[in-house]
């Protein structure tokens, strides 16, 4: 009988961590595993992306603390072979409650960001470092997206040991390229740039708006996504008189088509783990330029012609200045620039090995 695996998500917002969990759950071998989703909140922008044959249970809770009794009840009723969680605050809650989980259920946590950035973002009264050191050794397996994140976890949690595994984010390349089959591009002869993500402080889109003031007047930028800073960013655009050059289209299901139509994806994040949007841009043949904090270091070392890390604003504008805007209509995605190890099939194979090892390992 296939082993039950529950993927726990805080919500179905349009975040990269949620997309990774959907991709992994969908890619499991159905003869070996029966996946399902346990969503703390309700439906969200990613709900339409959930496969029809993937069972979903919604808790309609706004906080993990109030949702924990419900989560434990669902897990006990299902008695899964494994639970897979992502985002540190969900991981910590489940790890704290691990003694209350079914005895043979394995708990696998995925670190979605650099732990030092996560700790800095947590409430000051919360002893975040101590919680990591105390609770993360309880995990049956810990997934790090990059070697940098793995090294940070080893420094922070010396007892993590052999439980730590490196597994990059998966990209369903063929599906993504199908969605990008009709690239979207603004009219004009200048550079067409795109940025994407939640409109929050983390993404640093305010810096990107300031950078646009230093670029040629025919440069265009679409910032895809929605979030709490939408009004503030809109006011910045108006104050800088960039309304004709910078747009905020909001959350869209056509991100892949926008990426395929752009000359570059630009990232000015203050912190990232391994950004899915960068992987997706590369999969549709679009180069990436970002800040050192944007989680691009390993990609830049692996494919330096396709990924550039700009240490300063001058570097950023210099890299953009070397790009040549696409003159001919973009009728289909360019050839993929993404290394094969990030493809969904390769990552899913690694994840299944990790899952099998966790299930066969003694608690």
Summary keywords:
2 domains; Rossmann fold; alpha/beta; seven-stranded parallel beta sheet; 37% helix; 363 residues; 14 helices; Glycosyltransferase; 13 strands; six-stranded parallel beta sheet; 17% strand
Task: Walk me through the topology.
Elements: E1 3-9, H1 16-27, E2 33-39, E3 56-58, H2 64-78, E4 82-86, H3 88-96, E5 106-111, H4 115-121, H5 128-135, E6 141-144, H6 147-156, E7 164-166, H7 173-179, E8 192-196, H8 205-212, E9 220-224, H9 230-239, E10 246-250, H10 255-261, E11 264-267, H11 276-283, E12 288-290, H12 297-302, E13 307-309, H13 313-322, H14 344-360
Parallel strand pairs: 1-2, 1-4, 2-3, 4-5, 5-6, 6-7, 8-9, 8-11, 9-10, 11-12, 12-13
Domain Glycosyl transferase family: 192-303
Organism: Agaricicola taiwanensis
GO molecular function: glycosyltransferase activity
């Amino acid at each position: 009988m296939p082993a039950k695996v529950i993927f726990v998500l805080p919500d179905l917002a349009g975040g990269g961590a949620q997309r990774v969990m959907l991709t992994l759950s969908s890619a499991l071998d159905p003869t070996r595993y029966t996946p399902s989703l346990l969503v703390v909140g309700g439906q969200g922008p990613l709900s339409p992306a959930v496969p029809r044959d993937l069972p979903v249970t919604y808790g309609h809770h706004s906080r993990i603390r109030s949702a924990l009794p419900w989560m434990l009840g669902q897990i006990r009723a299902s008695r899964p072979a494994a639970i897979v969680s992502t985002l540190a605050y969900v991981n910590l809650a489940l790890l704290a409650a691990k003694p209350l989980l079914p005895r043979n259920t394995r708990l696998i946590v995925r670190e979605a960001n650099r732990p030092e950035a996560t700790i800095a973002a947590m409430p000051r009264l919360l002893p975040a470092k101590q919680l990591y050191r105390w609770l993360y050794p309880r995990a049956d397996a810990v997934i790090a997206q990059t070697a940098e994140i793995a090294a940070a976890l080893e420094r922070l949690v010396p007892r993590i040991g052999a439980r730590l595994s490196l597994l990059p984010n998966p990209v369903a390349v063929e599906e993504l390229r199908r969605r990008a089959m009709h690239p979207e591009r603004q009219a004009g002869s200048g550079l067409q740039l795109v940025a994407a993500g939640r409109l929050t402080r983390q993404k640093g889109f305010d810096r990107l708006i300031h950078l646009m003031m230093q670029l040629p007047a025919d440069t265009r930028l679409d910032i895809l996504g929605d979030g709490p800073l939408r009004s503030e960013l809109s006011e910045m655009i108006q104050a800088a008189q960039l309304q004709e050059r910078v747009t905020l289209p909001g959350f869209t299901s056509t991100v892949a088509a926008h990426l395929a139509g752009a000359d570059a994806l630009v990232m000015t994040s203050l912190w990232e783990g391994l950004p899915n949007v960068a992987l997706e841009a590369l999969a549709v043949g679009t180069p990436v330029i970002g800040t050192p904090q944007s989680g691009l270091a390993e990609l830049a070392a692996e494919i330096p012609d396709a990924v550039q890390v700009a240490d300063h604003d001058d570097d950023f504008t210099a890299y953009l200045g070397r790009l040549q805007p696409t003159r001919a209509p973009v009728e289909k995605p360019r050839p993929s620039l993404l290394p094969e190890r990030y493809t969904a099939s390769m990552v899913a194979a690694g994840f299944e090995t990790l899952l099998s090892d966790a299930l066969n390992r003694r608690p």
